[in-house]
Amino acid sequence: MHRFALRQPLVICLILATAGGPRLSAAEYPPARRGPEFGDYFGDKILDPYRWLEDADSPRSARWIAAQRAYTLAAFADMPERDAIRGRLREQSRAPIDLTQFETSEVFGTSRDGTRIPLFITARKGLKLDGSSPAWLHANGGGDAWAKPGFATPIATWLGMGGIYAQADIRGGGEFGQEWRNSGIGERKPNAFDDFIAAASFLASKGYTRPDRLVFEGSGGGALVIAAVINEHPDLCAVALPDRGVMDMLRYHLFKGGAQWEAEFGTSADPAAFKVLLAYSPVQNCAYGVHYPAVLITTGDYDETVSPANSYKYAAAIQAAIRTTPYYGPAMIRIDSTPASGGPTPVSRTMEEWADRIGFAAHYMPAGSLALPKGP
């Protein structure tokens, strides 16, 4: 039996930052009243105290969302890295970058079951493998996606500050055929978590970075991977950036847009799938009393691909636990309010979000480990 199937589910979560910037007082987090709701799954009663956040239009949810936005903006104001990084992102989106100073290599980690996991690592030429470089590890694997190394302005900005960028092609993605994909979905989804753990461990063991300067980042299914992994191994990284993640595995399929993920994960309506989902669902499995990384959750209140209710419930559960333990954290949520238009997100908004995410990560890196831009 896989070890994720042995975890006892917990109702609320706790996030403890392990490196970098100052802690935030737990008393400052916006309150979220716990409700009496629970789910009955084949005789197992699982508490669901933040189910009310699934209705984002209710007055209570609207107040909570507004308070979270205000809290996050106030916290961002104390992170000067954001303004400098925003300016660098704008510069690099308009001007070409000299890519000859960087190189990308393919390496392989070894997962728990012996499977070789490909990683593409991009860094400056002549990188010293002494563990001193901050590294950004992207979680891919899900939705039958094909992820290939490529240029992106946010990656170039991170590299330009002296960071390393690594992409882990874990099982569940479509890069290496149907069997590779099938071995990381449904009841075999925990293989993807093991693969990502192997990728992070490889980076540390080979001297690319150290856990106190490692950033985990991913969207959708990748965000789920990050959340599940930091529950199991919170000491693997310093910062976690789950974006628009599927976080409530017991009820995600009931949310708007959730049905499209059923083939990927299965649902709690099936007894066998329920046991697997309950074992790793981020909302139900965060651990008490451990040193979690700093976490910035991002979502959009218009998102129809992954309902923001996933992120709302995840954030509420984390902050409820942190309020009982002063100066733990931070764990905060950035909620984009751009209305859905059916078209692409404007570049300016994309740059703003990346400035916040990279700035947050930089803020919790060890002092002097990144060459931050000077001024906006």
What can you tell me about this protein's structure?
- An eight-stranded mixed beta sheet has the order 3-4-6-5-7-8-9-10, sandwiched between helices. A two-stranded antiparallel ribbon has the order 1-2.
- By secondary structure, the protein is α/β, with parallel strands linked by helices.
- It has a single domain (3-363), classed as Rossmann fold, CATH 3.40.50.1820.
- The protein is built from eleven helices and ten strands.
- Helix 6 (221-232) links the parallel strand 7 (214-219) and strand 8 (239-243).
- The longest helix is centred in the N-terminal third of the chain and has 19 residues, at 59-77.
- It has helices at 59-77, 81-94, 153-160, 178-182, 190-205, 221-232, 262-265, 271-280, 282-285, 309-322, 347-363, and strands spanning 38-41, 44-47, 102-110, 116-124, 135-140, 164-169, 214-219, 239-243, 294-300, 331-336.
- Helix 2 crosses helix 3 (153-160), helix 2 (81-94) packs across helix 11 (347-363) and helix 5 (190-205) crosses helix 6 (221-232).
Task: Provide the descriptors you would attach to this structure in a database record.
376 residues, alpha/beta, Rossmann fold, 33% helix
Give the gist of this structure:
By secondary structure, this protein is an alpha/beta fold. Helix content is 33%, strand content 16%. It has one domain: Alpha/Beta hydrolase fold, catalytic domain (Rossmann fold), CATH 3.40.50.
